[in-house]
Each structure stands twice: as C-alpha cells, then as structure tokens.
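Tutorial handout. Part one gives the primary structure; part two gives the three-dimensional structure as tokens.
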Amino acid sequence: MLKHVVVGFFSLLLIASTQAQVVKAGDLVIEHAHARATKGNMPNSASFLQIANKGKADDALLSASAAIAERVELHTMSMEGDVMKMRAVDSVDLKAENTISMKPGQGPHVMLFGLKKPLKAGDKFPLTLNFRKAGAVEVSVDVMDIAAHGKHGSGHGHEEHKH
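Part two.
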C-alpha cells in the first residue's frame, strides 16, 4: 500500500514539474506554455504562454514557428462592442520590467494554422519563439483539453479562424 502511495506521489510531482517548465533567455522568463487540444479534424489551434521581461530594456516577440503546423502567426484579440476582432500582428512588445500573459479570450496569442496532426491533451510539442534581442528560444508546449481553459477556452473562434 505504501509503495502505491509513494509511486502516486512521485507521479504527481513529475506531472507538476513537466507543466511548470520555465525557460530563461537573457532577461526573459517564459513559462506556462500550453496549447488547446483539437477536436476531430480541426485544422487550427492556439498556443498561450507568459513572458516576463526582467531587464531594463524593451524586447519584442517577432515571430514563432512549430513543425506541427504549416504556418504560425502572432495574433491579437480584442472586443469592439459585442464583436470579437482577431488580427495578425507583426510583433508583440515586451516592455522592460513587465510581464505579458497570453490567455484564451484576450490579448496576444500564437496561432497554429494547418496542423499536421490533431493535438491531443497530454501531448507536447516544441515551439520556437523569435525575439528581437533574446533571439530564438525553444519552449515545450503542453497540449491541454479545451475544458481546462475555463469558460474562455471554447467558443473562442480559433476553430473557424482562417486567412
């Protein structure tokens, strides 16, 4: 019995540690990288993360790439009245001594277009982020069930988002 408890405890620690990946690149600290699982043959998904700029100089996220998608773009989402507007952006500014949190349903995020295979909860994939000053940084993205994103995680429009 004790053996099962110990194995279960260490399994939980392993799961927690894999979901708490922190990547440091120069003055940037990147964490909580995750993507939404897809249903059926959905061709697109979105990835979210948190980037803290601990330095005294501004930086910017210029682009992203991932082998799992035909195209990866930086996007922003805003509400104009009752209408959700999503658009591609050339970069995401990272002000000195500031943190941005990419979350479902608001602000900047990374769009994954033309997925080469469905994203299943529990999977991981590498995502390369290209910064103006910090350069190219690879992070491991955890794929999470859409329900894990809370009420903003579904009906977000990414499934229908096309360019």
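Part three, for discussion. Helices lie at 2-19. The longest strand covers residues 69-80.
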